[in-house]
Design a protein that fits this description.
GO molecular function: poly(A)-specific ribonuclease activity
CATH superfamily of one domain: YVTN repeat-like/Quinoprotein amine dehydrogenase
Helix content: 10-25%
Organism: Bombyx mori (Silk moth)
Radius of gyration: 51 Å
Number of helices: 17
Structural class: alpha+beta
Strand content: 25-35%
CATH class of one domain: Mainly Beta
Pfam families: PAN2_N (PF20770), UCH_1 (PF13423)
Protein name: USP domain-containing protein
CATH architecture of one domain: 7 Propeller
Length: 981
C-alpha cells in the first residue's frame, strides 16, 4: 500500500530515483492476469487502498478522492460505490463481520456493505492517520505520522491514547501472535505486545533511510525500504528477513538475512495459505514470489500492467488464490493462479446480499396473436392519477336488478291457499321473459347518491364523556360552564366512577336519602353509612363538585361486588366493558346490599338490647368475646347473610331470582297453595319481621306457580324482588321487531311472566312439561326497572319501532281459539285465549305509545285479585276499562269473577341512560322539585343541564339506550273488590 511520508523524511520524488537492474530470466509465473477494471473516479484519482473482504467474495477499493467502491467475484461486478470524504483520500480499509471501517486522514467511517453510513468518528487526536489494525471484534488500533497510537473501543466509541517514541507509525502488521510490528517512516521497526502496548518490547532500525513496507507471518518479519547512498536515497534491491526470536542482545539489527529480487520492492505481503512464501511488488509492476526460508530457490516473476504509472497498493486473499494490485492510473488488476480461472477469496464465504432484480417486460413479436397482454403489469401512476380504461366503482359492485311490481290484475284475481297465492296468467308479457326494470346509468347514479345519504344525528356535547383538565394555579372556568344550575356534581376521576349516575338517582330519591341519612352502625366498610356520608356532603357542598372517595373505597372491599364483576381495574377502563349490563347489575346489588346492611344492623341492636336486659348469669352476657365482637360491629354467625341472590335475566329460576325471603307452600290434590291460610299467614309474619325501609320502597311481592301438564300437580312459592328485569319476547314469536303493545306490554309480561319449560315432577318422578306462571302479590311505592338491552335481540327492540295494531280480519285467522287453550305458553300467540285480556283491553285505545322508542311518563297498574296485572300508559277512568274481566276458573268447571284488587299510579322519576359513544358514557335523567317547580335535569358527572320532557322519554336516536328506570307511585292504592265464586 502507498505511504505518505512526513516532512521530516526525504522528499517522495527522490524515493523512486533508482536504476532498474538487469532481470534474470526465470521460469513461467505462477499467477496470471484475470481481470482489470477502471475504478469509479479512476480518470481523475489513483487507487490508494485495496483489501479483500474476510467474510464475503468482495474486493474493496478506495481512491485518492475519498471514494470507496466494492467489486463482487472474479468478474469484478460492481457491488456498491459511495463517498466517505469530500477531499481526503482513503488511507486504509478493514472488514469486520457486519460492516467495514474506512480510514481517511482525519476521520474513521463506519459503513454497511450495502453502502448505508452508520457513524463517522472524528477526534482532535486524529491529525495524519495512516493505517488500521483490528485487535479483536470490539477494538481497533490506529496509527499515523504522529507521536501516538489510538486504541478505539467500537462499542463505547472511547479512545485510549498510547504514546510512542518513534517518529510516527506508517505500517501495522501482526503475524498471528500477540505482537504487532509498528513501522515508522524513518526505517525503525518496534514490536509491541497488545496486552501491554504502552512500551515497545523490541526496537531496531531496519533500513538506514526510509521504510517502504513490512509484513509478518509467525516469527518471520519482512521489510523493504531505502538506503542512504552517495548520490542520495536509493531503493534497496532486496528484502530483509528478520527472525523475531533473534532480536535480542546488544545488536539486534544483525538478526536478519536478505533475499534479492529482480526489481527493487516497494510492497510486501505473505501468502496466508502457504508457509514461508511471500509476494514482493516493485513500483514498475514486477512481482516476485519468494521462498523466505530458502533464498536460493528460483523466483516466479510476472508483470502487472500499470499503464505507465506506479503500482501503489497490493493485497492477497485469505485463500492465496487471488492478488489485487492498484496503480496511480486508477486501474484495479486481479491475478489468480494459472490453472484457476474461478478463484475464491475465502474458504467459507457467506452469500452477499443483492438488491431485488427489476423485472423487465417480456418480448413479444408484433405478429403474435396469442400473447396475453393482461399478464404485463401496469406501471405505477402518480398520486391521484387514473387509467383511461378505469371504470367507475359502481360497475365493480354486485347489484341485483330490481323486479317489476306485480300486475294489479294478478293481485285482484289471486286466491290464497295458506301462504301461497294462485292467479290466472294475464299474458301481458312473453314466455321466459325476465320481468326486470330497465334502468339507465343516470338513474343508477341518482339512486346511489340518494342511498348514500345516511342521516346520523350527532351526539350533543353535554352527553359525551368529560375530559377535564384542572388548573391548579387559577380559576377553572371550564368547570363553571358545565354546571350553571347550582346543584352539586360528582367527579369521575377515580376508578369505578361509572356508578355516579346511579348515585345521583339515589340522592334525589327522598325516601332512600332519608333512610341512608338516618342509618348508623359500627361496621368498618358499610356502604349504607358511606352513602349517607356522601349525601350529607352533597347537601352541604353548596353546588361544589364532590368525590365519592370513601364510598368507592368501601365498595372495593365487598366480596359480592367483586364476584359480580362490578369492580373495574385501576387502569384506564376497557372500552369493551358493557356499561349497560354493568350499571343494571350495580342497581340490583346496591339495593340488596343496603337492605341487608340495615337488616343486620337491626338484628345486632336487638341482640345488644337482649344482652343488656338479661341477668348477669346469662351465658350470652358472661361471654366477653361475643360481647366484644358485637360492640365492635362484627355480626354473629347466625346473622350473616349467606343466601344473597340477585335477580338475573330469568325471573323463574330461584337461584337467579334475587328473592329476599323465599317461602314455599305445596298444594294437595291439585288445590292451589293460596288456600293454605295458616302457611300463608306464617310467611307474611316472617316477611314482616325481615322488612326494612328499602324493601318497603322497592320490594315486589310475587307468587310463582309451577303446574305439571301431565298430572296437573301444582307447587307454589312466594318471593320478593327489589328490581324488575324486562323480559323480551323470543325471536319468531312477537320478537324484537314484532312485539305489540310496546314498553307497557313488556312491563306487564315481566311483572306477571309465564313460560313453559321441562321441569322435575315429584309425582311423575321424571322431567315433564311444566307451566310456570308468576302472580303479583304486592306493588312497591318505587318501581325499579332494569331495561336489559344486553343482547343483540334486546338492543334491536329499542332500535326499531313497533308496528301499529292490525285488525283481526287482517291477521289471518287470529279470531280462532288457540288449540292449547289455557296451557298455551307461547308469548305473543295470535290466537284467542280465554284467560288473557285482549290487546285493546291491556292498553288504552288510541294510545300514543306506538313505538318502542318512547317511554310513558305515567303508568296505571291494576293488580287483579288473581295476581294478573293490567297496565295503561295514561290515566283513563272509563267504565269500559275499569269493569271486571271475566276469567274462567282452572278447575271443577266453576267460574269466578276477577276484579281489580289494587290500583296504583306511577310517574317516571329517574332514568339512567347509556350513551353509545367512544368511549361509552352513563348519564341520568332526574325529575326534581325546586322552589315548587318541577324540572328534568341531565346529570353527566360534573355537567348538569336542564332538559325537556320529550328529550327524556324519546329513545329513537341511535346513540341513546335506557338502562335503569325509576317509577314512583303518586298515590295510595285502592281496593275495589275481592274474589267471589
Amino acid at each position: 500500500m502507498e505511504y505518505h511520508y512526513s516532512e521530516i523524511c526525504m522528499p517522495s520524488d527522490h524515493l523512486t530515483d533508482y536504476t532498474p537492474p538487469f532481470i534474470i530470466p526465470t521460469h513461467e509465473g505462477e499467477y496470471e492476469a484475470r481481470n482489470s477494471v477502471l475504478v469509479d473516479g479512476g480518470e481523475r484519482f489513483g487507487v490508494s487502498a485495496v483489501v479483500f473482504d474476510k467474510h464475503e467474495e468482495l474486493i474493496w477499493m478506495g481512491n485518492q478522492g475519498g471514494h470507496v467502491t466494492s467489486y463482487y467475484g472474479p468478474n469484478m461486478q460492481k457491488y456498491t460505490s459511495f463517498q466517505v470524504h469530500d477531499t481526503d483520500e482513503v488511507r486504509d480499509i478493514i472488514t469486520v463481520e457486519k460492516c467495514i471501517y474506512v480510514l481517511t486522514k482525519t476521520t474513521l467511517r463506519h459503513q454497511l456493505r450495502r453502502g448505508i453510513p452508520k457513524h463517522t468518528h472524528k477526534s482532535p487526536n486524529m491529525t495524519d492517520m495512516q493505517c488500521l489494525y483490528q485487535v479483536n471484534s470490539t477494538k481497533l488500533l490506529m496509527g499515523g505520522h504522529q507521536d501516538k497510537l489510538i486504541d478505539l473501543d467500537l462499542n463505547k466509541m472511547v479512545e485510549t491514547i498510547i504514546p510512542i517514541q518513534e517518529e510516527g507509525c506508517a505500517v501495522l502488521r501482526s503475524g498471528g501472535s500477540s505482537h504487532v510490528a509498528c513501522g515508522s517512516a524513518n526505517g525503525i521497526v518496534a514490536l509491541r505486545d497488545m496486552r501491554a502496548p504502552t512500551k515497545a518490547e523490541h526496537t531496531f532500525r531496519a533500513h538506514t533511510a526510509c521504510l517502504s513496507d513490512l509484513d509478518m507471518q509467525g516469527d518471520l518479519l519482512l521489510t523493504c525500504g531505502f538506503t542512504q547512498a552517495v548520490g542520495g536515497v536509493v531503493a534497496e534491491p532486496y528484502i530483509v528477513v528478520w527472525d523475531v526470536r533473534c532480536l535480542r542482545g546488544s545488536n539486534p539489527g544483525q538478526g536478519g538475512w536478505t533475499i534479492h529480487t529482480t526489481s527493487p520492492p516497494l510492497l510486501l505481503h505473505f501468502l496466508p495459505a502457504f508457509s514461508g512464501r511471500a509476494v514482493a511488488a516493485s513500483g514498475d509492476g514486477h512481482v516476485s514470489l519468494l521462498h523466505v526460508n530458502a533464498p536460493e530457490e528460483r523466483q516466479s516473476i510476472f508483470k502487472v500492467e500499470t499503464h505507465s504509472s506506479q503500482c501503489n497498493v497490493m493485497d492477497v486473499a485469505s485463500t492465496s488464490q487471488a492478488l489485487a494490485f492498484g496503480d496511480q492510473s486508477g486501474h484495479l488488476n486481479l491475478f489468480s493462479p494459472t490453472q484457476n480461472h474461478e478463484p475464491v477469496y475465502n474458504n467459507f464465504s457467506r452469500s452477499t446480499e443483492f438488491a431485488d432484480p427489476v423485472e423487465g417486460l417480456p418480448y413479444v413479436r408484433f405478429s403474435d396473436t396469442r400473447f396475453q397482454y393482461s399478464s404485463v403489469p401496469l406501471p405505477q401512476l402518480a398520486s391521484g392519477g387514473k387509467w383511461f380504461n378505469e371504470l367507475p366503482p359502481e360497475f365493480f359492485r354486485k347489484v341485483y336488478r330490481k323486479p317489476k311490481p306485480v300486475d294489479p290484475e294478478v293481485l285482484k284475481s289471486m286466491k290464497m291457499q295458506g301462504p301461497i297465492g294462485y292467479a290466472p296468467n294475464p299474458k301481458t308479457f312473453k314466455r321466459n321473459q325476465m320481468p326486470y326494470l330497465e334502468e339507465s346509468l343516470e338513474e343508477m347514479s341518482i339512486s346511489k347518491i340518494n342511498g348514500n345519504k345516511v342521516i346520523m344525528q350527532p351526539i350533543p356535547k353535554h352527553y359525551q364523556k368529560l375530559d377535564i383538565r384542572y388548573n391548579k394555579h387559577g380559576p377553572n372556568e371550564e368547570l363553571e360552564s358545565f354546571n350553571k344550575t347550582g346543584q352539586p356534581g360528582l367527579e369521575a376521576t377515580l376508578p369505578n366512577s361509572y356508578c355516579n349516575a346511579m348515585l345521583q338517582v339515589l340522592y334525589y330519591t327522598p325516601p332512600v336519602k332519608a333512610t341512608l341519612l338516618a342509618h348508623t352502625c359500627a361496621k368498618e366498610f358499610c356502604l349504607s353509612c358511606e352513602l349517607g356520608f356522601l349525601f350529607r356532603m352533597l347537601d352541604t357542598s353548596g353546588g361544589t363538585p364532590c368525590q365519592a372517595t370513601n364510598f368507592l373505597r368501601a365498595f372495593r372491599t365487598v366480596p359480592e361486588a367483586a364476584a359480580l364483576g362490578l369492580i373495574l381495574p385501576d387502569r384506564a377502563p376497557d372500552i369493551r366493558v358493557d356499561l349497560v349490563a354493568l350499571i343494571q347489575s350495580w342497581n340490583r346489588f346496591i339495593l340488596h346490599q343496603i337492605h341487608y346492611e340495615i337488616l343486620e344492623t337491626r338484628k345486632k341492636e336487638k341482640e345488644l338490647a337482649l344482652i343488656a336486659n338479661s341477668p348477669p348469669k346469662a351465658p350470652r352476657a358472661s361471654n366477653p368475646k361475643e360481647r366484644h365482637s358485637l360492640m365492635n360491629g362484627q355480626y354473629s354467625e347466625e346473622c350473616q347473610y349467606t343466601e344473597l341472590e340477585f335477580l338475573g335475566p330469568t325471573e323463574f329460576d330461584c337461584q337467579e331470582d334475587g328473592e329476599l325471603w323465599p317461602g314455599r307452600d305445596e298444594g294437595v290434590d291439585g288445590v292451589g297453595p293460596l288456600q293454605n291460610h295458616e302457611s300463608h299467614e306464617l310467611n307474611n309474619r316472617q316477611a314482616h319481621r325481615e322488612e326494612t325501609e328499602i324493601s318497603q320502597l322497592f320490594a315486589i311481592g310475587r307468587h310463582q306457580l309451577n303446574r305439571c301438564l301431565k298430572c296437573n300437580k301444582e307447587e307454589g312459592r312466594e318471593s320478593v324482588v327489589l328490581a324488575c328485569a324486562l323480559q323480551y319476547p323470543p325471536t319468531g314469536a312477537g320478537g324484537a321487531g314484532e312485539a305489540r303493545g310496546g314498553f307497557v306490554e313488556l312491563v306487564r309480561a315481566s311483572l306477571a311472566a309465564r313460560r313453559s319449560t321441562p321441569a322435575w315432577c315429584d309425582h311423575c318422578s321424571r322431567f315433564t312439561p311444566t307451566t310456570q306462571r308468576g302472580r303479583l302479590l304486592r306493588l312497591p311505592p318505587i318501581l325499579a326497572i332494569n331495561c336489559g338491552g344486553v343482547t343483540v335481540r334486546e338492543k334491536a327492540y329499542w332500535a326499531k319501532g313497533v308496528q301499529k295494531e292490525m285488525s283481526d280480519s287482517k291477521r289471518g285467522g287470529s279470531g280462532k281459539p288457540c288449540r292449547y287453550g289455557l296451557h298455551c305458553a307461547r308469548p305473543g300467540c295470535h290466537f284467542k285465549h280465554p284467560d288473557r285480556p285482549n290487546t285493546s283491553q291491556s292498553s288504552s285505545k288510541g294510545s300514543s305509545q306506538e313505538s318502542h322508542c318512547m317511554l310513558p311518563l305515567q303508568l296505571l297498574i291494576r293488580l287483579q285479585s288473581d295476581g294478573d296485572v293490567i297496565i295503561n300508559d295514561k290515566i283513563e277512568t272509563n267504565s269500559a276499562e275499569s269493569s271486571p274481566i271475566n276469567r274462567p276458573d282452572t278447575s271443577r268447571h266453576k267460574k269466578k269473577y276477577v276484579t281489580t284488587h289494587l290500583e296504583e299510579e306511577y310517574s317516571l322519576s329517574a332514568a339512567v341512560v347509556c350513551v353509545e359513544d367512544n368511549p361509552k358514557n352513563l348519564v341520568a335523567y332526574i325529575h326534581t322539585v325546586r322552589d315548587g317547580e318541577t324540572q328534568w335535569f341531565m346529570y353527566n358527572d360534573l355537567c348538569i343541564v336542564p332538559v325537556s320532557t320529550d328529550e327524556v322519554i324519546h329513545f329513537g336516536v341511535w346513540w341513546k339506550t335506557p338502562c335503569v328506570l325509576f317509577y314512583t307511585a303518586t298515590g295510595g292504592g285502592q281496593c275495589n273488590g275481592d274474589v267471589s265464586s
